[in-house]
Amino acid sequence: MESILDIRNLSIAFSNKNIDNTVVDGASLQLRAGEVLGIVGESGCGKTTLSRSILGLLPPTGKIMEGELIFEGKNLLHLSKEEKRKIRGREIGMIFQDSMTSLNPVRKIGRQFIETLSSRLKIDKENARKLAEEMLVKVNLSRPEKIMNQYSFQLSGGMRQRVMIAMALALRPKVLIADEPTTALDVTVQAQILKEIQDLKESYGTSIILVSHNLGVVYQIADTIAVMYAGSVVEYGEASTVFRNPVHPYTKALLGSIPNLSHQQDKLVSIEGSPPLSHRLPSGCVFHPRCQFSNEVCRLKKPRPTETAEGVRVACHRQNNTRYIEGEEDIA
Length: 332
Ligand SMILES: Nc1ncnc2c1ncn2[C@@H]1O[C@H](COP(=O)(O)OP(=O)(O)OP(=O)(O)O)[C@@H](O)[C@H]1O
Fold this sequence. Notes:
Elements: E1 3-16, E2 19-32, E3 36-40, H1 47-54, E4 62-71, E5 74-75, H2 81-87, E6 92-95, H3 109-121, H4 125-138, H5 144-148, H6 157-170, E7 175-179, H7 187-204, E8 207-211, H8 215-221, E9 224-229, E10 232-238, H9 239-244, H10 249-256, H11 296-300, E11 306-307, E12 313-314, H12 317-320
The protein binds adenosine-5'-triphosphate.
């Protein structure tokens, strides 16, 4: 199946005092129509930076150093501001952890919601109101008329987040980027919202990128999964295959650290050490200082992703059977 969004060899850096720190390094991922791609990894591995870059929402110090972002055949990096604005929300929607800050504090929720829906979906105000109220109920806000009549400061953080989720879902984008959408919400509401996200996929064929540090959530709804470590995608493939048979030592440790998902180990595995800081990335394989299998090749050479017999892309010398040859040119 053809991909709706193709992330090709994407590298992103933040500059600090004229030094570029690479925080996403050569990521390549494909999102196919109607599928959920889960991106997982420890805090700071680059998940948010990668997902924000898709809509050109990097902070001012962040820049794309290399790569392409192809959406329905068009490179998003070559679009004008106006073209990007048209795509944002309607074609590619997003829900971020801090999306509650995007509500306008001096306008009632209803007015904002209705204006967004009527201008983006080209529907009249009455239909926009109905749709808005319907969506508020779907995200578990049971008295929509009351909420429509309130200002954002009158709502709790969790309610504001749900309003933003309702708005993003109501626009029925072709692609939805959801970055830790439910982290701040309680478990019952989380389940409700994940169900809504899944329904969106099933009813409208929406393709979804779900960024999460919660492997349980990704396990429930992702079709494919990308595991990131220190800016690199270390393993990427069908979620069921990766969960059943993780190959990269980091993925194994990550999955092994969750008891009810652990099919490989009987006991909890904790990964010793902590991820490297972006301005102090190790040479060779970024995971080698924490990897129990690392050897000289891993210390010197960055592994290239290769495909396993099960079609999973893994960046690990052990998997590739790479040997260090003295004098070889591409040693990092
Ligand atoms: N505005 C910024 N300026 C400089 N560095 C940044 C900025 N935002 C993020 N970074 C750095 O980029 C790297 C990746 O951060 P990012 O937020 O993308 O990771 P993440 O995996 O989404 O983490 P989390 O789960 O905590 O959100 C980190 O090293 C972080 O410190």
